[in-house]
Structure formats: structure tokens, C-alpha cells
Amino acid sequence: MTTPVTPAQEAHAPPTSPDSGTAGVAASSWPPATPHKFALAMLILFRLARGIAAAMIAVDLPYLVLKKLHFGSLTLGAIYMVGVASTAVLGLAIGQLADRWSRKGTLLLSAAMLPISAFMLYLFTSVPMIFAAAVIGGFAATGSLIGGGVGGAAQPVQSAVIADLAAPHRRTLYFSLLAFLGGVAGSLGAMLVGFASIHRTFLFAGGISMVGALPLLWLEIPRHPSPPRPPHGSRKVMTQFTITGALNGFSQGLITPFLIPFFMIVFDMGKRQMAWYTAAANILGAVALLTAPLLERRFGFARSIVFTRALGTILLLLMAVWHFLPVALFIYIITPALRIAALPAQQTAITSRVHIDDIGRALAANQVARLSAASAAIICTGWLFDIAAVETPFFIYTAVMGANIYLYMRFFGRHETHAGLPAAAEPNPAHAAAHATGFIKPK
Questions:
Q1: pLDDT (tens digit, 9 = 90+) per residue, 382-426?
Q2: Domain residue extents for the chain
Q3: Buried b (16+ CB within 10 A) or exposed e, 27-39
Q4: Fewer Cβ neighbours under 10 Å: the N or C end of the chain?
Q5: What architecture does CATH give domain 32-220+247-437?
Q6: Across all residues in the chain, what is the average pLDDT?
């Protein structure tokens, strides 16, 4: 005898992924209790290799532009801006492809961009070629990889793949796991930079990222049925995350790509020293990512973001006004961890609050807003650094982050459960099962 499906259950039933060829799979088969182990292993290999390569580029690029080619911070900022703008456009296109065509094919396409751009910089080191490589590789995005982000246009589609593989109540755990491993890999990549020349680093980064993309050829994504869309679709949630993403991107563009140049200008730090401190920041950021499931269960995603980013903002402001090297290095190492500790919970919030057929587009829209705003901030900071106003971006950052924190609480914090989901949401069978097993404690 078949158990009838209630309207609430039907509304939260999973949809057909772009990789599926049929909708004839029973609703109970999705979401899986645990992600497919082989698929997760393939993603881990990809994440490890990309983390190593992207961290190598993140540390090496400022030294290529400022030291080897003897250009100023404004040129570096322009390169970052071009990379950000390109990643925004490519990310939106790839998000659309992920929802409409194939998650796997789109992930492979985006994975190829980083090795291509790294090989371009190994073969040609002229300024036009650096700009061209930044367009393909999204160097401003990979430049903010400290802490385990996959960087570039691969971000939305990889998160969408995780959403396909894992039940909603487990997504934060797997987002955290992959980000942690990426951060550890980034630490290794940052340390490796200290043992290679500026030029040869790009060759190694290209080779490592190319090898890391090969396991994706064996990636299998599950098929599952599609429910009807809710009356208002996902527009409201996407708009809210787009607004907060834009403010977050502007603040990130002001500071993150210029932390290494800040130490080069203010403290005259060498490449080998910065490589080790960057590795330490990666390790701490990676460990911090593992706290995301605990933060989400205890505080909800919005309050977790508010607390960690508010503390990080205060520390960065202190670094700007007090040029004391030991304190500045401590802040440099700890603030990336504070900024990204709750990021996996944010990714879960996006994927859990929109229709699953819109996940790729929702993640891409958030990234487009973040990177578009960052492009303006990057060129602003590049100009300010060029005129020796190195403290000013930190004051602007404080004001923008304050507005962002306020909107997080206004949009998501008032009616949020401790699991990070809206309290008014209809019960989701997957979450009900999680409560029954004790994975997520009810309020």
C-alpha cells in the first residue's frame, strides 16, 4: 500500500538534477542519508589540487607584478579587478549551465580555467598576458583563497554538486569538510612558493591544478525527481543573498587581495616570510571551517556570521591604526579564519532556502553580486595604496561590514532556528528524520 504524500512533503520533495534523464525515481531515494562516497572522494582530490595551485598563485602574483615587473599597486589592483569582473560573468554563465545542462560537464569546464591561466603566465609574463590570464583564471577570486575557497567560477557549481549529493541537514558538514581540506592544501601551496622562483611557481601551479581536474571525469551525480515550484519561486531569498553578497564582496575587495601588499609596503616583508605566514593563516582558517556545523546548530547561520565577522572587523581596524609587526602578523593569521568560519553554514542556507532547480543560479547570483562589488573596491584600494593611504581602505571596510552585519540580522536572523533554517518553513522530511536520529537537536 502506498503512503499518500502531503502537500508540504510534495513541496519539499527533491527535483530532477540537470544530469538526470528521468524523473521516475522514488522521492524517498533523495536526499541520500550520506553522499556517494566515490563522488565525494573525486571532489576531495579536485579540491586538494586546486587549493595547492590557487594558494601558490595567490602568494606569487603580487611579487610578479610589484617586484619582478616593477609595477605599482594600481596595476595590481587593475589585474584583480579584471579577474573579479570576468569571474562574475563566467560564474553567472556557469551557474545557468549547471542548472540547465549538466553539473558534471559544467564543473569540468570551470576546472580547466585555472591550469590554462597558470600556464599562460609561465609562458608569457607581459602585462597584457597577465590581464588575459586573470580573465580566464579569475585571479582576484583565487587571490582570496586563504581559508579553503575553491575560487573562481568553479565555486557555484561545486556547491550545487554537494547539494545534489548530500541531504540538507548534512550539507554544512560536507561544505566544511571540503573547505577544511582545501585550506590544508592551500597551506601546503603557500609553503611551496618559498622554494620556487616567481616564474616557475606558475608552471607548478598549472600542472597541479590540471592533474586535480582529472578525477572529475569519474564523478557521478545522482538522479532524483522534481517537485512543482512554490508560488513565488526563489526570487525573494535570492534577492536578499544578492544584497548581502554585494556588501560582503565590496568589503572583501577592499582588504583581502591587498593584505600581502600591505605587509610589503608597511613592513617590507619578503616573499619567503609571507609564504610561511600565509601558510599559517591557511591552516588556522581550515581548522576554523570545521566549527561551522557547531556554530550553525548553536547560533544559526546569521548569528554565526555576525559574531565572527564583527570580531574580524575590529581586529583589522586595529591593524590599520597600529603598525606593530607582531600584532599585525597575529591579526593577519587569525582574521581569515574569523571571516570564513561560518561560510559553510551560509552555503547551506542558500541551498536549503531555494528550489533545488535554482541552486546553481542562486549561488552564481550571490557570487556575481559579491565579485561585481569587489571589482570596484579593488581598484579603489589599488589607487589608495598607490598614494600611500594604506589605512583608508580599512576604515571603509569597517563601515561597509557594519551595514552588512545589520542586513544579515534583518533578513535572516529574526526568525531563524538554531539549525540555520527559517522558522516559518514547512517541515522537511529530511530534517524530521535528522531530528529523530539526534543529528540535529530540536529547539
A1: 888 887 788 899 999 999 999 999 998 888 876 565 544 554 444
A2: 32-220+247-437
A3: eeebbbeebbeeb
A4: N
A5: Up-down Bundle (1.20)
A6: 76
User: pLDDT, tens digit, for every residue of 227-237?
Assistant: 555 555 578 88
pLDDT single digits (tens) 289-342: 888 888 888 888 888 889 999 999 999 999 999 989 999 999 999 988 888 888
CB-based contacts of 323-330 (< 8 A; 24+ apart in sequence): 323/266, 323/267, 325/267, 328/263, 328/266, 328/267, 329/277
